[in-house]
Structures are given as structure tokens and as C-alpha cells.
Amino acid sequence: MPLIVDIHTHVYPPAYMQMLRARKTVPYVHDPSNNADPRLIILSSDDDPSIPPDQRGRPVDSSYWDISVKLAFMRQHGINISVISLANPWLDFIEPGEAQIWAERINDDLEATCAKVNKDADPENTRPIDQKETLFAMGALPLSAPDPAVVVNEIKRLKTLPNLRGVIMGTSGLGKGLDDAALDPVWGALQETDTLLFLHPHYGLPDEAFGGPDATSRYGHVLPLALGFPLETTIAVTRMLLSGVFDRFPGLKILLAHSGGTLPFLAGRIESCILHERKFVAAGGDVQGPRRSVWDVLKTNIYLDAVVYGKPGLEAALAASGSDRLLFGTDHPFFPPLDGKDGDWPSVTTNYKAINATFESSSDTVADVLGGNAARILNLK
Ligand code: URA
Ligand code: ZN
Questions:
Q1: At 170, is the pLDDT very low, low, confident or very high (cuts 50, 70, 90)?
Q2: CA nearest ligand 1 atom 4, residue
Q3: Which Pfam families does this chain map to (predicted)?
């Protein structure tokens, strides 16, 4: 059996849950007065006053905060290593003065959780990797801090925590999106410390794109999660490209959630629109425009998770970035089976099947995507 590494798997540490429970505005957790599971209200469209609070958002249970539930899920699905990350909306909404303290609290908690699990599973560090569950983590960033230097310091501090591998970040950056020049010190620190950035969506598209505020009551989360999330990722990374982030920081390493949203599929169109844009200097305009092509960035700076639930999406990701840049993930604990959590999760088995179907002629490539690539890229030893 190949080594299986899950690079897209989330937690809300208990301190974060407690903070969400104390809040009354998005993001927050609502505890119903009956014995039902609490509700997680993190998307702005979830906070619909016409829906009773105990039906808003989605149920949230111990799979979000209890690491023993994560370990059982790993065992059930044959996952050897999980690289856990704080789930959305991370620390984006934290008061500026508290951002640093929350980042340190969350990241120290993630480090302590990994260290304890790894030690408990193998006190002498002698057991083979495929006979235990091992954890690493990606850190959260204090992006709402008053000064980007706070973010830079945390990126550097994370390098000193033995089980931390990379950082997770949403698409709002310091509040103005990822083409904001004020982020340059952050890109510089990521490049200098050779830190992988996991870019993950949260904000989606405005409700109007989906038919207005009652779209959620009609179709639940299908439109924001299936379409809003991937387009958000695509727009964010395209704005980085257009503003020259990859020209200024050619050593950046970015893992895109959900196989890059729609970036692999739309890369040709993006490149064509750049080529035909009169504003850009190459066409006689007055704006620099990107010097590196989308294709070059996809094959040099971008890694893609294999969380796309189907062969066509995976083939687009493969063609755009290459099989050595594709990494298995689950998005646990989101997308649980609705008929009870004891059986295999279709959200996981669908991705296993897509990987096997796409690379059926090469078991080595299947092994790379399932875990070999992640172990190499994130130095998981
Ligand atoms: N997956 C996530 O990571 N977050 C969500 O809110 C939904 C699915
Ligand atoms: Zn996710």
C-alpha cells in the first residue's frame, strides 16, 4: 500500500470554538436550547434572519475539534499522515490588536496537538509510518494585525515549531485581496523561508450571483460551495498573477485548494485575455502586466490538491501543473455523509476513485499523488 497523506483537512481547536460560541455575528456558533448539535454560521449568506438560528449554517460536532475523531477518520480511510489546518475563516475577523495573540495561540495549539499525537502513537519513534497515524500542521496567519510585520514574524516563528509545515490563508489578504502591494513583505517572508502557502477560499461570490439572499433557503450550500469557492480561488490567484506577484517573487510555493478552483480549465482563456489586453505595456498600454505566463506559474509556483471529485477536473489539473504537483486531500470534517458518519465518506472515496481512474496505467503516479508528492514537498519525516 502506498503512503497516504491528507494535505487538506481542517480543525477548529477548542479555544477557537469557544471564541465562536461567544460571538453573535458571523462567524459564530449557535448552541440550540434542545439537545441538537450546535450550528456553525461562517458564511455571510448563512446569517439569514428569516431562518431560525437553530437551522442556520450547518451542524458542527466533535469531528471539528476532537482530534481523536480525526484519527479515527484517518484509520477508517487508510490515511497515514494528515497535515491539519485551521478551517475558514481562520483569523481574518479578529480585532487587529488581538491578531498576534490568536495566531500564536492557534499555532502553538496545533504544534502541541501534533507533538502529543505523534508521541502517543510511537513513544520511541520506531514504528513504521504505515502502522500509525501521524500529524503535521499548517499555521494560521495574523492577517488583521495593524502591521504586516506581525505576519512576517509569525511566518518566521513557525519555522521553529517542529511539526509545522506551511501556512493556510484565505483570499482577502490584509483586507484588500491578494494583489495588494502591502502584502509584498508577506510574499517576501514566505519566499525567503521557503514556506508553502495553502490558499483556500471562504468568501465566495456575492449572493446576487446566485439569485439573491434567499438562494440559501432554496438550494442550501450548493451554489456557494460548488461554484462560489472555486471561482473565488481562481479570481484571487489571477489577481496575484496580473499584479506581478509571481514576477516579483518567483520562488513562491502556493498550494491551491480544490485543484485550483477553475484555474487549470481557464488558464488558456486567462492567458489569451492578457495577450489581448491593450492596457498592458506589451500591447502599447501604460500598465506593466504580468511578465510570466500562467502556464509557467502553474508548473513552477503552483501545487494543486486533488479535491475535485471527478476525472475531468483532475485531468485539467494534471495537464496544467503535472502529476508531481498534485496532492491528495479530503476536506474533512466538511462534507460528512448525511446518512450517519460511520461508513466510508463519499467525499473521500470519490476522490480516491478519481485518482485511480486518472492514473490507472501508473501505480507509481497514483502513489505520488496519494502521498509521495506531499511527503517530498512538505518534508514529512
Ligand atoms: N470546506 C471548507 O473548507 N470550508 C467550508 O466552509 C466548506 C467546505
Ligand atoms: Zn477546506
A1: very high
A2: 88
A3: Amidohydro_2
